[in-house]
Amino acid sequence: MPSTTPQLRTLDHPDRAEIRLEGVLHALSDPARLQVVHYLAGAGESSCSAIDLAVSKSTSTHHFRVLREAGVIRQVYRGTAKMNRLRREDLDALFPGLLDCVLRAYETRCVQRT
Question: How open is the CA angle 109-111-114, to the nearest 5 degrees?
Fold first, then answer.
């Protein structure tokens, strides 16, 4: 007899103790991933499709996976959408000031381009 309970889809995330600086820095080294992080820093939580990246859908999926596996973002399914949120509390506890510094540098670079 088939189960009537819907299966919850979950994604793997590193525990706080498993987050490594080199993984976080690698994840933050790509301009598209920096754009995602900057967007989430202001939005709080957002679906993948709400963040307008100038890349293909498969490349966008790759960028979100890199950020999740590095411990920079947490993704959860809500219906068919993946919702994203920065793991700011974890990152600030492990690497105080890093995220703020990266976001300031990103914003300064964006202002200089305009």
Answer: 115
Pairing between β-strand 73-78 and β-strand 81-86 as defined by DSSP bridges:
antiparallel
With a threshold of 0.85, does the pTM exceed it?
yes
Q: Going by C-beta distance under 8 Å and a sequence separation of 6 or more, which residues neighbour residue 92?
A: 98, 99
pLDDT beyond 80 at 63: yes
pLDDT in tens, 73-94: 999 998 888 999 999 999 999 9
Q: Span 97-101, mean pLDDT?
A: 96
Residues 6+ apart with CB under 8 A from 41: 86, 88, 99, 103
Closest CA to 33 of 13, 47, 53: 53
What CATH number belongs to 16-106? 1.10.10.10
Residue 102 is encoded by which pair of tokens? 């990266």
Tokens read off for 1: 């007899």
